[in-house]
């Protein structure tokens, strides 16, 4: 059980926040490039899902799994996108992501008047609280690299 | 167990086989008594699409298929009138409009198959773990897509209802059928669309059997 990393994108696709806990492989490109690639992939997956779905979507794309990791996706109605990579056995990741949004992002970014919402997050308080939430979640256990 | 469809994608990303198994029909009819109607319709990709509003099962993205029983092609009625003019004219009321969620056409399926190819590769490239495969399971709230890539690079995909388990076993069974009935067919050339009757019949039988038993493991 492990949580690898977290990306937060705004509605226009720019990377607001990135943090990694247990990342065993770097993608071999700069963070900006990687974020663009990640956003592009999510954008394509969303359009793929909306086209291939046999019924009308409500929440749309939720997650995908490979043999090594699982990517969980949460999009708020305002277009804010949370992407959390975990190992494939993690459960109830969606609840954790909703907590990240409602208990950390809203509390420490939206309610902080000096944080601009369209700029990368620099708040130390946000980072601390996020780290706290992730580390106290039941499935955070550091994997031996 | 509900299986919506099966897709096979070749090594180079082309769709070589698809089978619609059990695709639900999303259709609804609404009667509008007063002008103007309480849905916002727009012309999108030569179709009349709902862009805002929700009532009686009609949702955003649904396409207008008929007006007072007259079929709609593009943004024109089959009797030659323009759809928007007909809806704008208060004299035409009450109106009965029929909306449907369009099914994926074969062309769109080919497009979607080639769209999945880079997603599969990117998932492996953006992995936080070493030696990750591509997407194996993709979940949305209305369906689950399970993908199995063979050693030779052919991808087998099943679209099913969400939360379905045991699809990986079913995929291996389909692979078996492919190896038996498609590859051993002397008239089949590799990486070309599969048109083998025997393969299709056996696949159909397998899917029906799986759906009935609701479980794949004991087939």
Automatic annotation (TrEMBL), chain A:
Q: Does the keyword Transport apply?
A: yes
Pfam families the record matches: Sybindin
Subcellular location field: Endoplasmic reticulum; Golgi apparatus, cis-Golgi network
* SUPFAM superfamilies linked to this entry: SNARE-like
Ordered alphabetically, the record's keywords are: Endoplasmic reticulum, ER-Golgi transport, Golgi apparatus, Transport
Task: State the Gene Ontology BP annotations.
Answer: endoplasmic reticulum to Golgi vesicle-mediated transport
Task: Extract the InterPro entries matched here.
Answer: Longin-like_dom_sf (IPR011012), TRAPPC (IPR007233)
Give the family, as the similarity comment puts it.
Belongs to the TRAPP small subunits family. BET5 subfamily.
- Whom does it interact with, and what assembly results? Part of the multisubunit transport protein particle (TRAPP) complex. The heterodimer TRAPPC6B-TRAPPC3 interacts with TRAPPC1 likely providing a core for TRAPP complex formation.
Protein name, per record:
Trafficking protein particle complex subunit
Organism source for this protein? Lygus hesperus (Western plant bug)
Its lineage reads: Eukaryota, Metazoa, Ecdysozoa, Arthropoda, Hexapoda
Q: What would be the name of the gene that encodes this protein?
A: Trappc1_2
From TrEMBL, chain B:
Q: Where is the signal peptide?
A: none
Keyword terms: Endoplasmic reticulum, ER-Golgi transport, Golgi apparatus, Transport
Cited InterPro entries? Longin-like_dom_sf, TRAPPC
Which Pfam families does the UniProt record give?
A: Sybindin
The record's Gene3D superfamilies line, in alphabetical order, gives: 2.30.42.40, 3.30.450.70
- Do the record's keywords include Acetylation? no
Query: Which Gene Ontology cellular component terms are annotated?
Result: endoplasmic reticulum; Golgi apparatus; TRAPP complex
* Keyword Cell wall biogenesis/degradation set for record: no
Name its cellular compartments: Endoplasmic reticulum; Golgi apparatus, cis-Golgi network; Golgi apparatus
Mark the transmembrane ranges.
none
Q: In its UniProt record, which GO terms are filed under biological process? A: endoplasmic reticulum to Golgi vesicle-mediated transport
Q: How does it assemble?
A: Part of the multisubunit transport protein particle (TRAPP) complex. Component of the multisubunit TRAPP (transport protein particle) complex, which includes at least TRAPPC2, TRAPPC2L, TRAPPC3, TRAPPC3L, TRAPPC4, TRAPPC5, TRAPPC8, TRAPPC9, TRAPPC10, TRAPPC11 and TRAPPC12. Interacts with SDC2.
What this chain does, per the entry, is described as: Core component of the TRAPP complexes which has a function of guanine nucleotide exchange factor activity for Rab1 GTPase. Plays a role in vesicular transport from endoplasmic reticulum to Golgi and autophagy. May play a role in dendrite postsynaptic membrane trafficking.
Its family remark reads:
Belongs to the TRAPP small subunits family. TRAPPC4 subfamily.
Q: What is the official name of this protein in its record?
A: Trafficking protein particle complex subunit
């Amino acid at each position: 059980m492990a949580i690898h990393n977290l990306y937060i994108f705004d509605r226009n696709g720019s990377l607001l926040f990135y943090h990694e806990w247990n990342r065993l492989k770097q993608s071999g490109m700069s963070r900006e490039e990687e974020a663009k690639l990640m956003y592009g992939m999510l954008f394509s997956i969303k359009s793929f899902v909306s086209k291939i779905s046999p019924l009308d979507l409500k929440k749309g794309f939720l997650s995908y799994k490979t043999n090594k990791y699982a990517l969980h996706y949460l999009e708020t109605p305002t277009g804010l996108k949370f992407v959390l990579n975990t190992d494939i056995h993690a459960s109830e990741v969606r609840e954790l992501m909703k907590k990240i949004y409602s208990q950390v992002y809203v509390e420490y970014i939206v309610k902080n008047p000096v944080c601009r919402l369209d700029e990368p997050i620099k708040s130390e308080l946000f980072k601390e609280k996020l780290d706290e939430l992730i580390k106290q979640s039941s499935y955070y256990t550091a994997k031996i690299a | 167990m509900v299986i919506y469809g099966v897709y096979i994608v070749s090594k180079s990303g082309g769709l070589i086989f698809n089978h619609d198994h059990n695709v639900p029909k999303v259709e609804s009819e609404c009667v509008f008594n007063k002008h103007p109607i309480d849905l916002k319709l727009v012309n999108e990709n030569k179709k009349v699409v709902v862009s805002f509003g929700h009532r009686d099962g009609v949702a955003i993205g649904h396409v207008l298929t008929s007006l007072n029983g007259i079929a709609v092609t593009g943004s024109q009625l089959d009797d030659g009138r323009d759809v928007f003019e007909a809806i704008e004219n208060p004299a035409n009321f009450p109106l009965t409009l029929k909306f449907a969620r369009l099914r994926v056409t074969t062309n769109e399926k080919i497009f979607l198959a080639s769209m999945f190819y880079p997603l599969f590769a990117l998932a492996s490239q953006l992995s936080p773990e070493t030696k990750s495969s591509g997407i194996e399971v993709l979940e949305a709230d209305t369906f689950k897509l399970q993908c199995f890539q063979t050693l030779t690079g052919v991808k087998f995909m099943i679209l099913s209802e969400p939360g379905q388990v045991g699809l990986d076993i079913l995929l291996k069974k389909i692979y078996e059928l492919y190896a038996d009935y498609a590859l051993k067919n002397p008239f089949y050339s590799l990486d070309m669309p599969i048109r083998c009757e025997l393969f299709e019949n056996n696949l159909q039988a397998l899917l029906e059997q799986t759906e009935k038993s609701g479980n794949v493991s004991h087939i």
